[in-house]
Specification:
The protein is an alpha+beta fold. The chain has helices at 60-65, 114-128, 153-164, 204-207, 212-220, 299-310, 316-333, 339-345; strands at 4-7, 14-17, 23-25, 31-33, 45-47, 95-101, 136-139, 172-178, 181-185, 195-199, 210-211, 228-234, 246-249, 254-257, 272-277, 286-288, 297-298, 354-357. The chain has 2 domains: 4-37, no CATH class; 46-357, Rossmann fold, CATH 3.40.50.12660. The protein contains 8 helices and 18 strands. Helix 2 (114-128) packs parallel to helix 6 (299-310) and helix 6 packs across helix 7 (316-333). It is globular and about 55 Å long.
Length: 370
Amino acid sequence: MASKTVACPSCKQWVQMTPYGTRHRCVCGHVLTTRGAAAETQRETSVRGRGDHKGERHSFQRWQIAYTGTGTGTLMSLPSSCSDKPVCSGSRPNRRALLCGVTYKQHKCKLKGIYNDVKNMENLLTKTFGFPANCIRILSEDDPRDLERIPTKKNIENSLKWLVEGYQQGDSLVFYFSGHGLRQPDFKDDELDGFDETICPVDFMEEGMILDNDINETIVWPLEEGVTLHAIVDACHSGTNLDLEHMYDRKLNAWKDNIPPSRARKSTRGGLAISLSACEDDKMAIDTTDFSGKVMNGAMTYLLTDTVRNKTDITYGVLLDEMVNYIKKINSERWTNSRFLRTVLRRKTIQEPILSSSEMFDVNLKKFVL
């Protein structure tokens, strides 16, 4: 019997199928079977700092000292809306965003939920917060021929500069990253825990990672009064990925200092920088199908976008509480029964979103607005 091509019921991508009930996995994570022409789903969980492809675990120590492999790949069609103009026009305060989604498709550490993450974030920006589509730049592995839009180290660094270039008072800027995050020893004495946090471009094995120091210097230092930057990082080890000076402690309902021992500059020029990250610096973030039961999503991105869409008049405190409570529920109901995750995480909670800021504010009064 000949093979046939069917549309994935989740992402509508075409999948080449073979007969006799063979199961096939779409690039979005959805599992299909030819049995009765019906599609089936399979729950999955993967970690955004260690690969679990075919049961293989990858330690970040090996990644840091052995940069080998390739850094190219493709991603399912992502929206191509992005503008090279540094300033967007309109009567409302300018809104500009950089969305980076990295699948690492040619690596063993590839991720499956990135397409959904970037799509969910773009929809939140355009439909909930009114960001113009031409003021959103997306870096993805969508089209390998568009070299300027591949999330390489060079392109991400250049796009971070674009994000803060030519800003005006009243601007709202957003930096979003979905992919792998790692850590490496800090040699400048500007980290309380002794480690620099990093994000991993698609070519990180050849060109290296992007350090929190560099992100801070590029998009935090330039911010002047009247400008607001939100960074949303869905990656492992991402708690202090912007090196902001204050971290919020939910248990104490208070801000803690994150000022570097070296007293190196980490502040803005009067603007406000706020970061929401997937987990603490020593924890791991995950991709999972637990939310929809069909496709992979980054847990932090899914919870944030879904919560804010349904409660647009929400404070930072309520947003954090709802995200954490939902994650705890999933942990107790499903992940604690996973042998793989018990081994990797040693029965610890998988992740808890972290809020940090360049200045302290009342999280129970300040509304979450991008």
